[in-house]
C-alpha cells in the first residue's frame, strides 16, 4: 500500500491498484472529519467505507466510468439533512481538488483524463438540494 501524508490529509493507494492502474472502475473514498480538519483518501478497486464514523465524518465517493466513448468521473455525497447547501458546495470543490491532486500520477500516464468531465450527485433529505452538478475537469483542479 502506497501512503502519502500531508499534515491532516492522508492518501492510501490500495493494492492491486497502483498510481497508474486501473482507470476503469478506479474508486475514490474521501472521508472528511467534521470536528477536526482531518481527511483520508483511499484509491482502489472498491470503496473503503469501513473506516467511517458516521456521527463525526462525511464521505465522498467517486469513480472513473466510461460513458459514450469517453471517461467521466462521477461521485456522490450524502448531505443528510444539512441545511447549508452553499457551504457544502465549496467543501465539495475542495474535496474534488484533493482527489485530483492526490492522483496526479494517473494523469501523467493517462493524459486524456485531464479533460474528462466531473459530475457529483448530491443526495439530501431536503428535495431542493438533491441534484447532479458539473464540477469542471481535472485540469482545472491541477492549476
TrEMBL record:
Pfam families linked to this entry: Staygreen
InterPro entries linked to this entry: Staygreen
Domain of life: Bacteria
Stretches assigned to the Staygreen protein domain: 4-141
Name of the featured protein: Staygreen protein domain-containing protein
Amino acid at each position: 500500500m502506497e501512503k502519502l501524508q500531508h499534515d491532516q490529509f492522508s492518501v492510501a493507494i490500495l493494492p492491486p491498484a497502483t498510481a497508474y492502474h486501473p482507470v476503469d472502475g478506479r474508486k475514490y473514498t474521501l472521508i472528511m472529519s467534521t470536528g477536526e480538519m482531518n481527511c483520508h483518501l483511499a484509491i482502489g478497486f472498491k470503496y473503503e467505507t469501513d473506516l467511517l464514523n458516521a456521527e463525526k465524518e462525511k464521505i465522498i465517493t467517486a469513480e472513473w466510468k466510461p460513458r459514450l466513448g469517453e471517461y467521466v468521473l462521477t461521485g456522490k455525497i450524502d448531505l443528510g439533512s444539512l441545511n447549508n447547501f452553499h457551504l457544502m458546495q465549496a467543501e465539495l470543490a475542495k474535496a474534488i481538488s484533493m482527489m485530483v491532486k492526490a492522483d496526479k500520477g494517473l494523469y501523467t500516464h493517462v493524459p486524456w483524463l485531464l479533460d474528462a468531465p466531473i459530475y457529483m450527485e448530491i443526495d439530501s433529505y431536503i428535495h431542493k438540494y438533491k441534484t447532479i452538478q458539473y464540477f469542471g475537469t481535472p485540469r482545472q483542479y491541477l492549476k
